[in-house]
Each structure stands twice: as structure tokens, then as C-alpha cells.
Amino acid sequence: MELGGRxxxxxxxxxxxxxxxxxxxxxxxxxxxxxxxxxxxTPEFANSDGPLMYRHRFESAPPAEGRRRWITFDGVFYQxxxxxxxxxxxxxxxxxxxxxxxxxxLARIGEEHVLxxxxxxxxxxxxxxxxxxxxxxxxxxxxxxxxxxxxxxxRMYDTGPVRIDRLRVLCxxxxxxxxxxxxxxxxxxxxxxxxxVRTRRDGQVVDEHTSAVATGRNELEWTIDIRDPDLWWPxxxxxxxxxxxxxxxxxDGERSDERMRRIGLRQIEWNNWIxxxxxxxxFLRGTNLTPITVGxxxxxxxxxxxxxDHVLALxxxxxxxxxxxxxxCLYDRADELGLLILQDFPLERTxxxxxxxxxxxxxxxxxxxLGHHPSIASWTAHNEPTNADRSANAGWRGRLRRVAAQQxxxxxxxxxxxxxxxxxxxxxxxxxxVAHSGVLPHLPQLDGTDSHLWFGWRHGDAxxxxxxxxxxxxxxxxxxxxxxxxxxxxxxxxxxxxKGSWPDVDWDALEADHGYQRAIFDELxxxxxxxxxxxxxxxxxLYQSHVLKVQIETLRRLKYRPTGGFxxxxxxxxxxxxxxxxxxxxxxxxxxxxxxxxxCAPVIVVADQLPDWINPGDALSVDVxxxxxxxxxxxxxxxxxxxxxxxxxxxxxxxxxxxxxxVAKVGTLDMVVPDxxxxxxxxxxASDPTGALAHNRYTxxxxxxxx
Length: 707
What we know:
This protein is an alpha+beta fold. α3 packs parallel to α4 and α12 (533-557) packs parallel to α13 (591-599). The radius of gyration is 28 Å and the shape is globular. The model has no long low-confidence stretch (mean pLDDT 94). The longest helix has 25 residues, at 533-557. The protein has 13 helices and 37 strands. The protein is 20% helix and 35% strand. The chain folds into 4 domains: 7-158, Galactose-binding domain-like (Jelly Rolls); 162-263, Immunoglobulin-like (Sandwich); 271-489 and 559-600, Glycosidases (TIM Barrel); 606-702, Immunoglobulin-like. The strands form 9 sheets. An 8-stranded parallel β-sheet has the order 26-25-24-23-22-29-28-27, covered by helices on one side. The protein has a 6-stranded antiparallel β-sheet with strand order 2-1-3-9-6-7, with no helix packed on it. Strands 31-37-36-33-34 form a 5-stranded mixed β-sheet, with no helix packed on it.
């Protein structure tokens, strides 16, 4: 039974806590609120940071003899205290997993009941105490947004004397002969019992055993072997067969409780940031997925489907769920579509020391809730565990602070992240766990993690990534954030900030409310140097396309030597923003959308990045590579490169085989730069006997050398 219908709420204070929780309390003056939902979506609470007291009246017949009754909160943002008919139930904390309470005795007293829940989600400033990730106080949600509320359903249901509180199902390893599945169940028993634990696969019993349970919490663990399994594969490598495992608890011949998990049988391994699935390595072409809507309660299955369609249209095989845990539908659809997920635990930037034990517990709950999804390839305990200034003009002091934050030990990096990583590893040895994302190599091990390299935006230029790869190859093993910001097509929020003729705009408001990184734009693309808003917007989008093209091509050319993949920043916005997305908040593509699609095709032909200008008489030497992500060889590849300038051109031709899942250098364009000033372009076309495979274009300018 879902406890839907009419919910009311009011700001919580001591009087409300004393007199607003009982069955006979007067709530006629309280305001109606949406459950599931977030309280700030109610106009009267639009600016409230809570806490709020929620109340819901309902009727239910008492549970039958021998049955137990439970109330489960599927999603609470972020902490709560709950009462039923004035009796205290408990204090759930954690937004992404369910919290259940035994209300059997209270349910037997009568048929009319009131559930009261005080929900708190404190604002996060400085060191964070809430484990809410980017869903609160981040660059991807509006300033002042508070996600507080009962954002998932509240349910009431009955079980027998033994209930399954948590169920963890992991495919530890698998090959064509056998899959090994480990099941862990946490049971809540009313009294000592001898129980039968029955496991079904797609309705057929595959395991049955008896066990004795004591009063209270019990943990059982068992394994099943599946012979000749149909393996789950990423979409580029094969099919995605899924199987349903059902665990049933039987007490005295009666079913007491059951839970189901849909799993895929596969084995994931990582070797120096190169991912392999069922023994087949796969280069990961991915994007960062930030919250699809500002409030998770508003993220419908249809909106998830829409964004995943864009992921597929871009030719990607991976999504990094950055800084939050999303709705269940996202993981279900990724399983079905054969997309891999790099899952962040919702620790973002620096956290207070008080968070450690709660983070450890919630890491285990993450595995319990999501561990059965074959699409999840890795866990990351903490995203960017520093608060260093990331702006372009932070000065030498800012740069020094950034270096210090990366190199010196801190409680977040050295203590918190290790504890959370260890919790993930204890709960799940079937996947790798990364302690923190975006931490460069540092003493004493000089071994970093995945990198956040914003060349061309926060520092340097777009070609800086290739230079970094030569100097420190370990920093490009997996680049999980890169790109640049651009102005979207949907800009009524900028129109509202206009105070007069261009460029008289309320830039402070755009910076405060819409993610505008003013210092960086003023350095790279200052608005007052453009004659109109449209030209400025167009140029920001062209620049974003340039940065993503250069860097995706660089990383793909470094495939497996040493790069295992990438995730660019980012797919789409949840709010009107000037950001690094390739889709705006209305899902209108920016110029970079098509650039990413071409750069992430299964087969691409790439050349070395040309300098911005060259001089007549210079020797020009450009390597050309053919990148083949297909699982079949290109036996007879042909590459034609035409170098053209005003009044002339020259053609280069190369050919030969390219092995499956490999990068081949097909030739070098060696020439002397002509005397003609102006644009010099290189057009490259790769083909095989069946037709064109890929094409690319590069340009530079022939100029007179300075005196």
C-alpha cells in the first residue's frame, strides 16, 4: 500500500515537535505538499531550508495474526525523524536507499493513523555534513536550491515473522562455462526460527537451504553457480541478456518475505585504467551525467530515456554518473542498452570529519541497492576532495593552493576516502573502487587516479592535453572531466539579465545564478569584444567544439597507450546555464554536439593538431592515424589527404590494414609551407572497398613571421 494522497506540512519548531505528531493533532492550517516531491516546489516553501514536519492521515486494517507490518521510506532528503500516532519510529538518514520501520504493534491498536515525519536537509557551506553530492550547493543546481523532502514514495506492507531488510546480489566472475553469483541477505526476525531460503532464477529453483536465525538482525551469505551462462556484454561487444533472481524466505511452510534482483552475468576487470568485460578490453567513450532535473523527484522515466537516446546518438558507450546516485530507471535502462556506468558516491568537495561513519555505512548501502546492475563498472568514493580555487585568474597564490591541495595529505583524501573505499571493497569485490576522482599523482606513490584536465579552459590551450600526455603519461590514463563552457541556444535567462544594449548585461546575476564563469570568459572570450550577443554566443560554441574535438581525438589516438577512455563534461543541463554541456536545459544541441558525434564514431581518421599559424618556407610534418574501435579488422584501408591553400594543393595517399580495436599510424604528411598567405587546409578521407569510413578537416593560417 502506497501512502499517497493528501500530505500536509509546516515549518518545524519545538511546538510542532511536541504537539504536531499525535493522532489528534490539528493540522487543518498546514499546507498541502507533494509526496513524492521536494518542499521547495511548494510556493510557500520555495525559499525554505527547513526543517519541515510532514503529516499524512490514513486508514488500514490491523495486520493478520503472525504477520508484521512495515512502513518504508523509499527516499528521504536528507535526514528525518518519524512518528506513527505519536510513537517514535526512528531517524533515517541517506537519500538514495530505503529506510524501513516495524509498526506492527501500533497498527494493531486501531484503523486510523497519522504518520508524522520531520525532514531536514541543512544548507551546505564550507565542509559538508550531508552526503548529497552535486544535488546540493554545486555548479549544476541553482543557487539556494534545497532538495529537502520525501522525494520517493512512502509504502506500508506486511510480511511474515522474518523480513528481508537488505539483499545484495553480485556476479563475482563469469565466463562461457560458469557464472559465480554471491548473494548476501540481511534478515530481521521477530523471534528465533528455522527458515528455508529458496533462490529462483527466472522462476526455476536453483538453490534451497535451511538456516537458523536469531531474534533481530541476521546476515546470511550463499553462492550459486550458473552453468553455460548467456553472458551480458556492452552494446559494442554483444547482447545484453538479463536474468531475474528471486530470494524467498519460508517460515513454518509459509512464505514470509521475498525480494527480486535483475542481474546480468559478466566479469569486469580493470588493468591500469583499461576496462575489460568478459576478457574483452573496451575503450570507453563517455560523458558526465549530472542530474537530469534539478529535483530528483521530477526525473521521470521518459526524461531518462531521452537523455540516454542522446548518449547513443553521440556514439558513446559509457556514462559517468557524476557526484550523485540517480533514479533506479537509469541503471535499469543502462543494463538493457549495454551502456557502462562509472558510478560516483555522493561525496563532493570537502566534508566534515563527522561524516566518516555515515559515509562508510552508506557506501555499503550503495552496493546493496545497485550492486546487481551489470552496467556499473566501477565505484568512486569521492569526487574532487579539495576546495582549491579553480578559476583561471586565481593568480600565483591560487595556483599554489591548487598544487598544495593535490600534493599534500588532507583528512578528506587520506582518511575519509580510504575508509569509504575500504567499505566498498568489503561489500563488493567484483568491481574496482577508486578512492577519489580528479587527484593528480602525488607523493609518496606518485600514482594518481582519473584526471580532470581542463586545458583550453581553466588553464593553457586545447593542445595542452597532448603535451601533458608526453610529459606525464599517467595523467591521461583516464580523463574523466574536460571541455569548456559555452552559451546555450535557449537564453531567455540572459535576456532577462539585459539592462540595455549589448554588452550591458547583469553579469553578476549570470555568475551567481547560471554558472557563468566570468573570470575565464573575460580572459578567453570577453563579451565586450564582440559586436553582438549572437556573435559572442556563436564563438563560445565554436570554441567549445574546438576544445572537445582536439582533446577527444588526442585521447583516442592514445588508445591503450596509455589511455583507457574518457568522459567529457558534460551531456546536458538541469537548469538554464552557461556550462560545458553539449545540450542545454531544453535539450537543444550546441555546436559541439555534432563535433562530439563525429569524434566518437567507431572509426575516425585523425592528424596531429596544427599550430595556430605557420610561416612560408617552414617544414611541416603531420602524422595521420586511423582509429578503429570496431571488433573487425579493416583489411584494405585507404587514406587520402589533400593539403590545399590559395592557388594550389598537393595530395598524399596511404593504405594498409588496421587491426580490430587498434590505432594505426597510416602515414606522415611532409611538406614545405607555401609562400601564399592565408588559410592552409588539410582534408583527410579514409575508406575501404565498401566505401568511405571517416573524414576530417584541419586548418591553420600561413602568415608573415614577426620581425
